[in-house]
Predict the structure of Pirin family protein.
Amino acid sequence: MSDLDREPGQAVYDCAVATVAEPESVLLPGHDVPLGRYTTVRRLLPHRRRRMVGAWCFVDHFGPDDVSGRPGMQVPPHPHTGLQTVTWLVEGEIVHRDSLGSDQAIVPGQLNLMTSGHGIAHSEQSPADHPPGMHGLQLWVALPEEARHGEARFEHHAAMPVLRDGEMTVTVVVGEFGRLRSPARVHTPLLGAEVLFTGPGRRELPLDPVFENAVLIMSGTADVAGTRLSPGSLLYLGRGRSEVSVEAEGEARLFLLGGEPFDEPLVMWWNFVGRSHEEIVQARDDWAAGRRFGTVAGCSAEPLPAPGMPNVRLKARDRHGRTVG
């Protein structure tokens, strides 16, 4: 997925921040961002007060939308550096094509994981005969220094590990939950898991106390760590918790994020994750000149042009959003 903001910057937003029941829990409201002509997403990370959760540096929640009689998602070819994209659907279908030659449809319950390394281009488009609904998540994972200059790759996993416990089902998308491990290859310790309640229930979900952790709700409502959570916000849980209480009054779909704190300062601009202003300028120039990122075959849409660089120098920021250097 592409960041289509007209003026992509350091992702500092003027959003109200509500401190909730426990001292380390912070409710971070998202904001709507148009994604092309046909899709609007709720951007939950990065946020003015919390830039990352582990290496998770970007979280977009889209839908549920009725796309019957509409094109659905139509994101033309665009570049990425320094990150992994994680695509998770609960409704709909999207076809991923990239400059490695991948051409892969994804449907609910499957995982698309793309690793940009030094550079890759891809498109994401609903097929003409797509289902009537569209609902899912697109997330970015920042690559650490030792992985971000490597070769690009793409993985599709048609089946993910699932834990069923009465009215609750947990699907392990990335990392480990209990004794289950996702087959997805990541480069820092991470957790990404969908938690689905099919009816009323309460559970204590285990957490790694070394990780930063957070929860979002995709549909329904639930009390998480004593806070009522509904779609549109991310509840940051901080570090040091070995479990979190979740209580659903009815059907609810949550997504649990976690990871070891990512201590490398980042420059995030448009679809690039780097370490300096100069890196971002070079990536933009390479995309504009048709270098480095390759061509997305099988996609008839024109590649997305890069926006103009801002009039100020881009500065690296740490995981708290503080300027470094």
The domain at 20-259 is CATH 2.60.120.10 (Jelly Rolls). The CA atoms of residues 22 and 225 lie 8 Å apart. The two ends are 30 Å apart (CA to CA).
